[in-house]
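Task: sequence design from structure.
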């Protein structure tokens, strides 16, 4: 018996009857030789962790565009926080931690530079539209490994695509990640806003903090317990209604006070103009796109707008700014 088979046997023995077992996975689109050590979900986690798109997350905006300071979240640190919250919940519910972690690490691979501001611009200018969850699937299926994709299991790809608020994940592990994403960004965005001097604890809505707690630590604990307690031993992952209502109120408060009206968001207009300018330029000069994006157009018979979106959405904030300077700003010259 291989180590992988021993692990699969342990899963069958100790995991919840509602957990997604590695041995019963729906598998990959392309047959792949099983690893003698790792389960299929462990392989998926490692493939995501080692891919280029994952590494680029460290230089992509989470919420606050170009903050001065090393302690504000990036898209990568957000992803790691989601993974940790999701694993805590999955372990308590005896779900498959490896599947949960794989989905969590991959859930934001399709994000653009400059956060949701960049996503909104590409959705507006591209005739076919753009969303980071659709793009995440393109990253893992078509763009990584020189167009070969990561060949992930169906359960992981479903979790990446369905992590949005209105998504319906096919596994309980995917539902855990969906809720953990919300828990993570609400709490760490409050923490970052307080660090930036935009919020104080006293400014948060009392009707929400009375339920959730009066510190980031307390609120995280309440939200996590609010999922574990009603979901333990049940075939669905849910949050206590009272806590869910308070979380919704806190999220709305953050949209009203921070996500749309705070001073750090004032720079978003410039970022959106930058992304729109890059899109227009590459639509007019498709010959300047990197080779792999051009080849994808011919291979899959897709329009050029999709290739341009693939290229721009894969950029980090710094790389997008550098390309804009290279293409649109005058350079010094000498004889």
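Answer:
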């Amino acid at each position: 018996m291989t180590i992988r088979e021993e692990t699969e046997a342990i899963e069958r023995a100790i995991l919840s009857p509602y957990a997604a077992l590695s041995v019963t996975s729906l598998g990959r689109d392309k047959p792949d030789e099983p690893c003698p050590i790792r389960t299929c979900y462990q392989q998926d986690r490692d493939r995501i962790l080692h891919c280029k798109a994952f590494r680029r997350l460290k230089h992509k905006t989470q919420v606050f565009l170009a903050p001065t300071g090393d302690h504000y979240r990036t898209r990568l640190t957000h992803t790691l926080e989601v993974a940790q919250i999701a694993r805590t919940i999955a372990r308590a519910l005896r779900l498959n931690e490896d599947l949960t972690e794989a989905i969590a690490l991959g859930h934001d691979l399709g994000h653009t530079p400059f956060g949701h501001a960049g996503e909104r611009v590409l959705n507006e200018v591209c005739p076919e539209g753009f969303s980071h969850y659709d793009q995440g699937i393109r990253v893992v299926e078509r763009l990584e490994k020189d167009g070969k994709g990561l060949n992930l299991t169906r359960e992981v790809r479903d979790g990446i695509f369905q992590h949005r608020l209105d998504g319906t994940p096919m596994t309980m592990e995917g539902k855990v990640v969906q809720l953990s994403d919300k828990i993570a960004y609400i709490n760490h965005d409050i923490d970052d806003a307080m660090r930036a001097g935009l919020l104080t604890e006293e400014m948060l809505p009392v009707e929400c903090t009375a339920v959730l707690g009066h510190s980031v630590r307390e609120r995280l604990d309440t939200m996590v317990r609010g999922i574990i307690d009603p979901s333990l031993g049940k075939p669905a992952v849910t949050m206590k209604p009272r806590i869910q209502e308070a979380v919704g109120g806190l999220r709305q408060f953050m949209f009203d006070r921070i996500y749309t009206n705070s001073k750090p968001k004032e720079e978003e207009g410039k970022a959106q103009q930058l992304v729109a300018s890059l899109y227009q330029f590459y639509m007019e000069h498709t010959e300047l796109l990197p080779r792999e994006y051009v080849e994808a157009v011919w291979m899959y018979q897709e329009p050029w707008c999709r290739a341009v979106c693939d290229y721009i959405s894969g950029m980090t904030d710094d790389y997008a700014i550098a390309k804009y300077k290279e293409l649109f700003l005058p350079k010094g010259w000498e004889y």
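The chain has a mean pLDDT of 94.
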